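Field log, afternoon session.

UNIT: design team B
ACTIVITY: writing a sequence onto a fixed backbone
BACKBONE:
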């Protein structure tokens, strides 16, 4: 089996997650432990994403779907389903890849790849959830402007908590490390 660390397209382990955060082998974490944590994180996310996907599919077959949503809104719901499907694929890829390519090994390169894939799932998941919040708010309130505001606010919240906050904390940790 080829060692994936030779692939130049993959960054070093220091770039696996949040910039500036310790990589595997740093702060007492081995590559094996880092891999285990990454795969556990993916396993924890999956049930919620799968439940969301199920509810999205059920909505399409309910009596009120065509009655309460315009064709454009139905298309938005389809977009949300596709985004959540992309998130599912990204979250499940590390486990499938590891089973087939490196079943008995834990490498820095795979930890980087797995971390990137799981992190990449967050953006389509946030967008899919925000679109569905928008649609639900429009159906409940009947106010498109309020619904759009709520959808945008939810997306902004996800981006702030899942991307901005971790990067801010990593920058803080880097600054504190320089002192």
């Amino acid at each position: 089996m080829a060692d994936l660390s030779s692939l130049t397209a993959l960054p070093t382990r220091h770039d696996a997650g949040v910039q500036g955060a310790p990589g595997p082998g740093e702060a007492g974490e081995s590559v094996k432990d880092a891999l285990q944590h990454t795969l556990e994180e993916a396993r924890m996310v999956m049930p919620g994403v799968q439940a969301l996907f199920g509810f999205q599919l059920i909505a399409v077959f309910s009596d009120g779907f065509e009655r309460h949503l315009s064709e454009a809104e139905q298309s938005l719901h389809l977009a949300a389903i596709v985004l959540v499907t992309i998130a599912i694929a990204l979250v499940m890829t590390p486990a499938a890849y590891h089973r087939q390519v490196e079943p008995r090994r834990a490498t820095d390169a795979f930890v980087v790849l797995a971390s990137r894939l799981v992190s990449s799932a967050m953006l389509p998941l946030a967008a899919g959830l925000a679109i569905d919040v928008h649609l639900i708010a429009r159906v409940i309130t009947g106010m498109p402007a309020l619904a759009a505001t709520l959808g945008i606010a939810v997306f902004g919240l996800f981006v702030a908590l899942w991307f901005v906050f971790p990067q801010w904390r990593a920058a803080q940790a880097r600054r504190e490390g320089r002192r």
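LOG NOTE: The chain has a mean pLDDT of 83.
NEXT ACTIVITY: expression trials, pending approval
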